[in-house]
Amino acid sequence: MGLIYPDFKTLPEMFSQVFSHYKGRTDRFPLARKINGRYTPITYDSLHRDVESLSAFLRHKGIEAGDRVAILSENRPGWYLTDMAVLSIGAVDVPLYPSLPPNQIEYILRDSGSKAIIVSNMLQLGKIMSVWQNLPDLGFIIVMNRLEEKLEGVTELSAAKNIGSRLLSERPDFVSYQIIKPDDTATIIYTSGTTGLPKGVMLSHRNICENVKSCSNIIRLDESDRSLSFLPLSHAYERTGGYYLLFACGASIYLAESIETISLNITEASPTIIFTVPRLFDRMKATIMKQISKESQAKQKIFYWAQAKGKEYHEAARENSPSSLLTLQHALADKLVYSKIKRKFGGHLRYFVSGGAALPPQVGVFFQSLGITILEGYGLTETSPVTNVNRPDNVKFGTVGPVVDNVELRIARDGEILFRGPNIMKGYWNDQDATDEVISGGWFHTGDIGELDEDGCLKITDRKKHIIVTSGGKNIAPLPIENLLAESPYVNQVMVIGEKRPFLSALIVPDMEQLQQYAQKEELPALPPEKLMEHKEIRKLFESLLRTVSRQLATHEKVRKFLLIAQPFSIENGFLTPTLKLKRKAISTTFDKEIDELYHAMVYNTE
């Protein structure tokens, strides 16, 4: 069936059409969450009533079209409700990662001029209370959980809905729905800039709606589909793909309890599609291989035979030439091995969609050989976000597939990937200079380097800008973190790493003079620099530094491991440019082995 209503031009129009289509239906539902150990659905009618009530409360509190309202919450029904209510009155929502510390939240709320914020719980409320005095525009707070005590300017979500419901019963026309235009801003999503100060990406209703329509033509969904949601809704990828696309097609969204419970929740929800990031595949592959290693020799042989046949079959299928014998062997392998692995994913999974970071080709091939399809895609917050995705009938690992409908792609002379289309952002909030830097002649400059193959599939080959993208899909500017670390008298030079890795680490060149003074003060033995750096008390000193700096950073920005390097970075050894900037690629290539050992040790220790 695809989209319930294919002609929507704004998100509230799409919401309204879907709610009308399912009015009175209890056999279909948009959301399900865990209550008392069981997944319990939320009906379309119930969600619609709540959206209307919250919309009325927001209008009652003075929120007008174009006003910004922030959301600070984990994935939960209240997130979807808030988003729908804010957008339905023509206001603009500003999503915030729940892992952000108060100082970063303060910056975004002040920069966006948010008039209200809706938070999930007391922890998030505490963050806002600690910075509220610095936010003259912030008028009131709504908290989704129950309040432990009455606070001025803070309303429980249940109370807000009750007030809105009363207003509507007295005056059904109280929420005089704004005429929302396709080019009105729907959301401002803050992303890391190269300078470290986050920039607000303004996405219009047209940007998002056109992207949803483009995706719906590639990944065919209908009301029989269901997903498991665990990526943060504050990220454009989950929001467009894992929320708006699914809702527009009548699919059901099951909310995972947490990252730790994904394996359990998959078997309970039996999803047909899951939007995820490469990091999860690493974990799942490790789990599968660990289980196989515990099986008998005979079962291990069958597994590896089935895996080899799966790989052979898909290679032949690409050329349309699997032999009848290979087809028979593949069917047998499915019965003996693939079907059992698929049951661990609920038994109904059609696709994983992978985005947010690069998927290692060998990981894609591993899962494909076991009968599990991963569709890797690409995009940026600024492109709403999807620009490319592999097609279900033609998966090419190592590429992010061809462009989606309505999107044009061009490779500039220097290899930079450029896009043009209705999905390109309106610009950066309050930052015309930054907007002009990336949009020229209608073309958006991604900062990534790539090439097109003979089938029009895009291959990302390098990054033009230094933003680190972890394997969890987080975009992190290393410079501000490096500056914080460099404030220590014991740090001479530092480079933060973490591209395609599960977390950040730091390569640190210590200030040897300061370090030796510290060693004397602590009565450590006189040692040459290389030996001194290995001393456990010196390791403790740097571990303490990382902990101190981490308190000022979001969870995904914390530096978890470090490597001490005796040789300073210089122009002479090729680690600095003539203007004394770090030659990041040269440094990471030189210390590639030590970096691998650093991450391997961490993974090994945590298993």
Core attributes:
607 residues; alpha/beta; Rossmann fold; GMP Synthetase, Chain A, domain 3; 5-stranded antiparallel beta sheet; 26 strands; globular; ligase; ligase activity; ATP-binding; AMP-dep_synth/lig_dom
Question: In terms of topology, how is this protein built?
Answer:
Elements: H1 11-21, E1 31-35, E2 38-42, H2 44-60, E3 68-72, H3 77-88, E4 92-96, H4 102-112, E5 116-119, H5 122-131, E6 140-143, E7 154-156, H6 157-170, E8 185-191, E9 199-204, H7 205-216, E10 226-229, H8 236-248, E11 252-255, H9 262-269, E12 273-276, H10 278-293, H11 297-318, H12 324-344, E13 351-354, H13 361-369, E14 374-379, E15 386-389, E16 408-411, E17 416-420, E18 427-428, H14 432-438, E19 439-440, E20 443-452, E21 458-463, E22 468-469, E23 475-476, H15 478-486, E24 491-497, E25 504-510, H16 512-521, H17 529-534, H18 536-550, E26 559-564, H19 584-590, H20 592-606
Parallel strand pairs: 1-11, 3-4, 3-5, 5-6, 6-7, 10-11, 12-13, 13-14, 25-26
Antiparallel strand pairs: 1-2, 8-9, 9-18, 14-15, 16-17, 17-20, 19-20, 20-21, 22-23, 24-25
Characterise the protein shown here:
Residues 29-429 form the AMP-dependent synthetase/ligase domain. It catalyses: a long-chain fatty acid + ATP + CoA = a long-chain fatty acyl-CoA + AMP + diphosphate. Pfam families: AMP-binding (PF00501), AMP-binding_C_3 (PF23562). With 607 residues, this protein is an alpha/beta fold. It contains 20 helices and 26 strands. Strand 10 (226-229), helix 8 and strand 11 (252-255) form a beta-alpha-beta unit.
